[in-house]
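Structure first, sequence second, as always.
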């Protein structure tokens, strides 16, 4: 596994702001937008796990993905799916949730038209990001603990990397390996990590940072 780079100087998190972003159907999506302290070099859209099982933008894995994005100079954008927090609507099995992400991406893209997207999703959120990737131009897709045994994952339409726990108790590694082989997707396995990466969050952060940071920021 490639060693993750250190956080670039001048790109420390500078705090965030919770906003309500409108959907086309009149609904609202609660979104936490965090900006790096330096000049932003991209946008990272981060999708949380299943809303009916406690998933929200405050999920610790989603938060770690945001920390990795900020360390690499990306604006970290974390929405709450419909029905979670202040986001209006009800759970829609990934279909409406894709519209939620698209609405947020369209608004943030309008504010930052020159910045490229990176898409990151955890578990159910990985499925939603996989769906979004066919509708939003993005540089990369990072699937963390993707729920390939629960939802239909096809060939990803953008360059993709999977990060999965060796000891995932919900989505067996063997199933993820089979999906990755079928579609020639790079797979990074975190030793001894379960689905929620208990005790492995720092390793997860460093791994994702190595995928998001430009090579020039790496140190010997």
């Amino acid at each position: 596994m490639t060693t993750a780079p250190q956080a670039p100087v001048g790109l420390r998190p500078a705090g965030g702001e919770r906003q309500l972003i409108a959907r086309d159907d009149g609904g609202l999506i609660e979104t936490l937008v965090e900006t790096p302290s330096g000049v932003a070099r991209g946008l990272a859209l981060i999708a949380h796990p299943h809303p009916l099982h406690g998933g929200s933008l405050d999920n610790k894995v989603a938060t770690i993905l945001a920390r990795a994005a900020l360390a690499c100079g990306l604006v970290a954008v974390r929405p709450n799916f419909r029905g979670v927090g202040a986001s209006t609507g009800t759970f829609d099995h990934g279909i409406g949730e894709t519209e939620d992400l698209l609405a947020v991406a369209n608004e943030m893209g309008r504010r930052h038209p020159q910045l490229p997207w990176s898409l990151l999703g955890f578990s159910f959120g990985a499925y939603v990001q996989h769906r979004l990737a066919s509708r939003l131009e993005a540089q990369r897709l990072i699937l963390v603990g993707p729920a390939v045994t629960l939802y239909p994952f096809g060939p990803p339409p953008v360059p993709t990397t999977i990060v999965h726990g060796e000891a995932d108790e919900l989505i067996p590694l063997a199933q993820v390996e089979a999906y990755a082989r079928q579609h020639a997707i790079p797979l990074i396995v975190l030793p001894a990590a379960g689905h929620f990466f208990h005790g492995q969050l720092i390793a997860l952060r460093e791994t994702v940072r190595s995928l998001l940071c430009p090579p020039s920021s790496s140190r010997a």
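Margin note: The chain has one domain: 13-213.
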